[in-house]
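Example 3.2
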Amino acid sequence: MNPPSGGMETLEIDMTSEANKYGTMNQPGMGPDPVRSVYLIGIGGIGMSALARYFQAAGAQVGGYDRTPTPLTRELEAAGMAIHYQEDLTALPREVDLVVYTPAIPADHAELRYFREHGYRVVKRSDVLQWITQRSFNICVAGTHGKTTITTMVAHLLRDSGYGCNAFLGGISVNYGTNFWSDPRNVFVIEADEYDRSFLKLSPDVAVITAMDPDHLDIYGTGEAVEEAFVSFSRRLKTGGLLICREGLARDRDLQAPRRLTYRLAGETAAVHARNLTVRDGRYCFDVVLPDRTIEQVELHMGGLHNVENSLAAIAVADSLGIDAAAIRKAVAGFRGVKRRFEYVFREGNQVFIDDYAHHPAELDALIAGVRSLFGSRKCTVIFQPHLFTRTRDLAEGFAAALDRADEVILLPIYPAREQPLAGVSSELIASKMKNPRHRVMDRGALLDWLGSSYVTANPAGGVLVSAGAGDIDTLVQPICGMLKEG
């Protein structure tokens, strides 16, 4: 029986007692045999690098391949992992218990093909997470946006409060400088990725669903298929499991869960919501109303009203585990965010520079709304790099509508990632649908020239500059920051 949309069925199961049943963390393995050595193809990805750290923390020898060196791969190498950057069969280790690859790796990749043809055990990253979640207590956070921030918030709340957890994050926690940490307690906080339907292999004890907007249509085909995947994810909950979902999801009545909570920033129909929200000196202050108590005077030092709403979901998880209100309040106040999630890169005088991973229209809309909520009428200039040709084709009107909320927009060329170009699909497609006339398309060189010669002098009173996107726009952050400092 589904509970009322605003509430939750009577708690008959103590979630902390359920977590305690799993004891301490298991040694890594994929079945009865432990994994002593593992090779990861695509080791530098945010999800794969977390998995590499997991195996190493559990005592396995770890190595891998990636296409290019990055700050993440350099960190892994410094930790003792052997990584190379060419498809080189002579560089492969021969004594490997397990080979893990990411779906972004093409099927004809030379190394992947070699391991498959020579009888090695080859699995996707999602297969490893499937095995882990079958043997642990799991908090799995899913959604087409917001999941990285909520996952990191939940993991921080459990770590800071002393509850304890292992964490697989889809971004770098600013508090801890990593996307993974281990703990003896056999509790895992996992970002549940909908890409390639990976999250349908997980076994949550607590599941969070933030949104089910159309995305990854190159995989799903239609928005309806995306929604159906999230409905299927809700059915993955273990017996007695708890679903925490944002109020008003498109398929709300179809979500299957033994127990369910809803959350939403405003309005009192959701079981978890905020009251008395104010902005003070660049931080949000609010009360959190929960089914059985209210936690007053919570402070969040992270920009964006959407992040206040994200914190409600994280606090609801912590509350379900019986974590003390004072510990929750302290942890939220100490949360420093996630790299590239409303990250303050530069803030001096009237000049503010924010970097964000936003790559979906709803995320862009929330990002710009967050800037407006904190900085009022200050001029907002957005530099946006679209990610994927298919996403740009499918969501061009949504991107245009979101970007119209900014005062000025610079569009960079599309970052292709795994895709080949599509005829008629470019950043100009978004520009053609925008109503705000203050927009232009520039390449990286022209952008840096414009910033160095025009932006600061054209905005002597200051303003808010925002860079957004999931491609390589992050490599421009430090050059832009340097220009703003030189002023």
